[in-house]
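Input record (one chain):
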Amino acid sequence: MPAGSVAVAGRIPGLAWYALAGGVFLAGLALAAILVWRFVAAFEPATSFLAPGEAQVTLSGPGEYILWHEHRTVYQGRTFDLPPRMPDGTRFRVRGPHGEVPLLHGDGAMTLQASNEGREGKSVSAARFEAVGAGTYVVSVEGAFEPRVMAVGPNRAGPIMKLVGAVSGVVILALGLAIAVGLYGFLRTVQAPAAGAPGAEAQSSLRQLAGLVYGLQAASMLVGVTLFAGVIVNYLRRGQAAGTWLESHFTWQIRTFWWSLAWCVLGIATAIVLVGLFILGASAVWFVYRIVRGWTELNEGRPMYATR
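The corresponding structure, as predicted from the sequence alone:
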């Protein structure tokens, strides 16, 4: 036998498609890493200064900025450990390139519940202001109190949430595409039962696919997109299962998909009135039951619905 034919025979069926699926997912991870790197590279550090006093801060662009009270920190070799709340009578002022900049919370900003655990200690927000554009701003903290460390920096809550959303979207999309490519490669290796093929051979192929779908449905509890991959398999091969006991499993799986989707939408829509949480919880239990029962019946070689 020629050496070349041995090498071909030893290949894993669909290996190229599985490799492509892995490449798609790795490309998605790389893109997500690039998004994180760009965010970190553009990270604008906070500017610290001693109060009472003022500091000139050069801001790179418009946006919301926070004045932090670093009540527990080390600054210029000196340790500070003070109460989080600023003393009564403290006044905050911000002057921008075009004049006075109003504080978003005025004097009441001292009670804003936001904290920053970085910068060698603990910080609490004392005031916020909106910069209308790039330029030099003068931030002043006035009052009769012992020196303390203040810091001015951008409000990163919004950008971080956007980053998390973008990274999550990229990873989920890449995972979904990878699953679709891998599933397509798998289906190419599972030949459709030919006309006149022995019944045992045809049912073995369909039974393998039904088991795959139950696995995809179970995996969807961790990776939601696999639920959609499973129902695609159902619709692609349901016609081949017509007239066999496996047709009931394909029907069972399709109904599981659509009813789960409907209950999920209803639960999310009514979550604001709390009843949606019960709907989501009940639908999750029902979903697990459908998978466990279907998989059990499949392993026992039984249909899901009684024949009439």
